[in-house]
């Protein structure tokens, strides 16, 4: 794994840019994975809920990339957090992907109806069984994250949440830095809204690059932050990894950060816990 393009927190290392695969299914998922691996990606992010793990596994197999070169993340859905269901979910993911283990297993969304300590114990068991190498969380607000850190017998390696310039996640990121947890941004372009934002497009024009590159550079300038942008376009997939030779000034960084707004969150399903803002 290329350390220059990796995020290191404690003893945990992961590629800072990964391929997000939500809504990519069948042939689209296979072709996206093939394009990503050809472009040099090492991190593929999926979930049992996405229904595409088998297709992703087919893409990896077709690419012929050694398992040791890959970092695979998957997630357990919030209705499968009881220990027996969680372990069955992990085994399905590993089988569907055609791999021996996951590099990172995340709780997809918290479920207050299930004792968090039981869920974390089951994840630790999955690690002891060799099914996963690291455990983490997704879509946990700060109070739930802090509780998980206290309860878990295994280090919480990563937290994956929606994050982009329209959504302030400074509270969560601060907790992650203090606890040496990697923060992974999904929906980094705000489901595309940021790609037409005047501040972003003006900076893109000034740097001779794209709006997507500006947003990703803003993320990569932040300590402890990784990102998993989703795309099915081979050219865009490759561009997200390369990003060109861009350096944002402190003034540009501050201007982009200042874009956050109260209605900036895109994803807030009915089963989500109360957010921090």
Features:
277 residues, alpha/beta, TIM Barrel, 15% strand
Distance between the termini: 36 Å
* CATH class descriptor: Alpha Beta
Output the structural class.
Answer: alpha/beta
Q: If helices are DSSP runs of H or I spanning 4 or more residues, what is the number of helices?
A: 10
- The residue fraction in helices comes out at 25-40%
Supply the number of structural domains.
Answer: 1
Overall pLDDT level: 94
Biggest β-sheet strands, sense, barrel: 8 strands, parallel
Cross-sheet strand order for the largest sheet: 3-4-5-6-7-8-9-10
Contiguous runs where pLDDT drops below 50 for at least 5 residues: none
Shape category: globular
Strand content: 15-25%
- Rg over alpha carbons: 18 Å
Question: Which CATH architecture is right?
Answer: Alpha-Beta Barrel
What is the string of helix and strand elements? Answer: EEEHEHEHEHEHEHEHHEHH
Query: CATH-wise, what's the superfamily?
Result: NADP-dependent oxidoreductase domain
CATH topology: TIM Barrel
Strand elements, count? 10
Could you outline the blueprint of secondary structure elements for this entry?
Blueprint: E1 6-9, E2 12-15, E3 19-20, H1 26-39, E4 43-45, H2 53-63, E5 71-76, H3 83-97, E6 104-107, H4 116-128, E7 135-138, H5 142-151, E8 156-162, H6 170-179, E9 182-186, H7 198-207, H8 211-220, E10 225-227, H9 234-242, H10 250-257
Parallel strand pairs: 3-4, 4-5, 5-6, 6-7, 7-8, 8-9, 9-10
Antiparallel strand pairs: 1-2
């Amino acid at each position: 794994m290329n350390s220059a393009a990796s995020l290191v927190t404690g003893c945990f290392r992961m590629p800072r840019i990964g391929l997000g695969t939500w809504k990519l299914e069948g042939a689209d998922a296979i072709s996206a994975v093939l394009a990503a691996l050809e472009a040099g990606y090492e991190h593929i992010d999926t979930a049992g809920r996405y229904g595409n793990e088998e297709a992703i596994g087919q893409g990896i197999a077709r690419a012929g990339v050694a398992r040791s070169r890959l970092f695979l993340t998957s997630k357990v859905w919030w209705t499968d957090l009881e220990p027996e269901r969680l372990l069955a979910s992990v085994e399905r993911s590993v089988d569907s992907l055609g791999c021996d283990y996951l590099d990172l297993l995340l709780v997809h969304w918290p479920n207050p109806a299930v004792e968090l300590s039981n869920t974390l114990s089951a994840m630790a068991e999955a690690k002891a069984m060799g099914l996963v190498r690291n455990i983490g969380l997704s879509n946990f607000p700060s109070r739930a994250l802090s509780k998980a850190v206290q309860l878990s017998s295994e280090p919480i390696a990563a937290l994956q949440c929606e994050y982009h310039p329209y959504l302030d996640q400074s509270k969560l990121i601060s907790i992650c830095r203090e606890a040496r947890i990697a923060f992974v941004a999904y929906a980094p372009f705000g489901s595309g809204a940021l790609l037409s934002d005047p501040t972003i497009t003006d900076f893109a024009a000034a740097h001779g690059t794209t709006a997507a590159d500006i947003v990703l550079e803003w993320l990569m300038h932040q300590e402890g932050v990784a990102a998993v942008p989703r795309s099915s376009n081979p050219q865009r997939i490759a561009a997200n990894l390369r990003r060109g030779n861009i350096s944002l000034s402190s003034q540009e960084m501050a201007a982009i950060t200042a874009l956050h707004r109260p209605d900036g969150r895109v994803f807030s399903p009915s089963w989500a816990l109360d957010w921090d803002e």
